[in-house]
Design brief:
Length: 373
């Protein structure tokens, strides 16, 4: 049982660390940012900078902003999300479940909606060379989400070549999670993700990744470099803005209902992407927040496509009261709740009995299910 009084005491002890005043950091960052944007030699200084900080690349004026203007109201957006039940070591039968949810929303003269979900049961034998762990299930879930866009017809969605369609994913196009995996698993999924992304490119399926409340620090790193005179090897000044994120920097120049220029992401992991699908990003400012949108290179290089994608996402955020309605509904289709988990294991036990086997459960788990005093 959670002791509410003790929780309150514990939180109170951490308040000063959880909620750090940002006024001083914002003042420092704003001053340095204003100097950056007026520096005619900024690109040269970045090229010669001595640093390990990850900074983006861009070709337009760094603080340029574009209004998210009204576009054609008719379009088709497909939100895709996934959820999972991890392998439970307390059961003798080791298996997992990934549920992929989609929502297809058509806007225009004949507006309509279609929702669907597809569960997949995974067992260790399917990928014998990789450990059957939660990390594996997470990686497979992202694979299934990309695969859903490639084979969206299997979810009952019909694509019309005359209809403007956007596939929208929740999260990042940058596969950060793979960096924590061992070399074998990382290589396996990088290959698979690249194949799926290239299929989307070849099929010319427009796609974007939406990140709410982003924690990225690529613009912050530019400010850090300015504070250190572009040499972080001999300077600790970049710690002066440790609590800021890119959304803070974007707020300096990005008004409501506007988007930023498109930046090229440049972490080491992009070396594993095919050129056409390398990640780019921009920020969009709505009434509720500054969100980050990521998209592949083949779309990022087309200004008309970027503007249209920004409009569709902005419209989705408006319809969803701050968060894209297509992603919110896709999450509802995908999410595996407590009763769903109980149903899954009940069905697993039934299948075990029907097959003439008994599904064993650890005494620890059994005890939790029948707690008594």
């Amino acid at each position: 049982m959670l002791n509410h009084i003790e929780v309150m005491k514990a939180l109170q002890e951490q308040v000063t660390k959880l909620f750090v005043p940002l006024d001083d950091e914002l003042t420092i960052a704003r001053h340095a940012w204003n100097q950056l944007v007026s520096d005619q030699n900024l690109q040269i200084k970045l090229t010669n900078a001595r640093t390990q900080l990850m900074v983006p690349r861009w070709t337009d004026t760094i603080d340029a902003k574009f209004p998210v203007v009204e576009g054609p109201s008719a379009y088709h957006v497909i939100g895709i999300d996934g959820s999972q039940i991890y392998p439970d070591r307390h059961y003798s039968a080791s298996c997992a479940l990934i549920n992929t949810g989609i929502v297809s929303l058509h806007y225009g003269a004949q507006s309509r909606a279609h929702v669907a979900s597809k569960p997949t049961v995974l067992i260790p034998a399917e990928i014998e060379q990789l450990p059957f762990t939660p990390d594996l299930i997470n990686a497979r879930r992202q694979e299934f989400e990309l695969a859903a866009a490639e084979s969206i017809e299997s979810f009952g969605v019909k694509l019309n070549s005359d209809e403007e369609t956007l596939f929208l994913f929740d999260g990042s196009l940058i596969f950060w999670h793979l960096q924590a995996y061992d070399e074998k698993m990382c290589a396996h999924f990088l290959t698979r993700y690249n194949q799926l992304l290239m299929h989307l490119f070849e099929q010319k399926k427009a796609c974007a990744w939406f990140i709410s409340l982003p924690k990225s620090k690529e613009l912050v790193n530019l400010v850090r470099l300015k504070l250190c005179n572009f040499n972080t090897d001999v300077c600790e000044s970049f710690h002066a803005i440790d609590h800021l994120v890119d959304a803070h920097i974007a707020s300096f120049f990005l008004p409501n209902n506007h988007r930023s220029i498109v930046f090229e992401h440049r972490s080491k992991i992009i070396a594993h992407y095919h050129e056409q699908v390398r990640p780019y990003f921009f920020y969009v400012h709505t009434e509720n927040e500054i969100a980050r949108v990521e998209l592949p290179a083949w779309l990022a290089g087309d200004e008309k496509k970027v503007s249209r994608i920004a409009h569709m996402i902005f419209d989705q955020m408006h319809k969803g009261y701050g968060y894209p309605v297509s992603l919110a509904e896709a999450h509802e289709q995908a999410v595996v709740k407590g009763p769903d988990r109980e149903f899954f294991y009940h069905l697993l036990a039934k299948c075990s009995n029907d097959a003439g086997h008994s599904l064993s459960i650890s005494q620890k788990s059994a005890k939790k299910r029948r707690m008594n005093v």
